[in-house]
Amino acid sequence: MILFKHIKKLALGTITVGSTILMAACYGVTDESFLVADGEVKSGNQGIQGLEVCINLNESDQQVCEITQNDGSFMINSWEDFRNKANSNGFNICVNDIDGVENGQYATKCTQIPSNRVPAYVSIDVEEDSTEL
Asked: Which one of 19, 24, 58, 98 is separated from 106 by 20 to 30 angstroms, measured CA to CA?
């Protein structure tokens, strides 16, 4: 009977821990307070997918990057210290074409975001890059 109680406790503990890990794996661990910037990258009225969007902190070499989605949207989350520095000092957000000609060729474009604008919504219009490879 004592052995059964121990097995029951072990099974219950395993199920509890397993379900927590499963939920984190399926839904991710996110916190809205760590959002630094979101927005869209477009050419004209068309959202562009597969472009790298990077936030570079002013007066620092720290950066965080994400890739645009099918509709050109992006969301950049970061750790709290990075977010606080971006809000205090402002930041530079740059769009880079990293997929070559797959989704079109676009010139790199950077935009300066002033301090106290985090979380920032940024809409960036890029132009096709006419230089040949």
From this structure: 58
Helix (H, G, I), strand (E, B) or coil at 61: coil
Neighbours of 43 (CB within 10 A): 17
Give me the DSSP letters along the chain: -HHHHHHHHHHHHHHHHHHHHHHHHHH----GGGEEEEEEEEETTEE--SEEEEEEETTS--EEEEE--TTSEEEEE--HHHHHHHHHH-EEEEEEE-STTBTB-B--EEEEE-SS--SEEEEEE--B-----
For residue 25, give both structure tokens.
């794996």
- Full pLDDT tens readout for the chain, 133 residues: 677 676 766 666 667 666 666 556 676 655 445 999 999 999 999 999 999 999 999 888 899 999 999 999 999 999 999 999 999 999 999 999 988 788 788 999 999 999 999 999 999 999 988 765 5
The helix/strand/coil state of 116 is coil
What is the chain's alpha carbon radius of gyration, rounded to the nearest angstrom?
21
What pTM did the predictor assign? Answer: 0.71
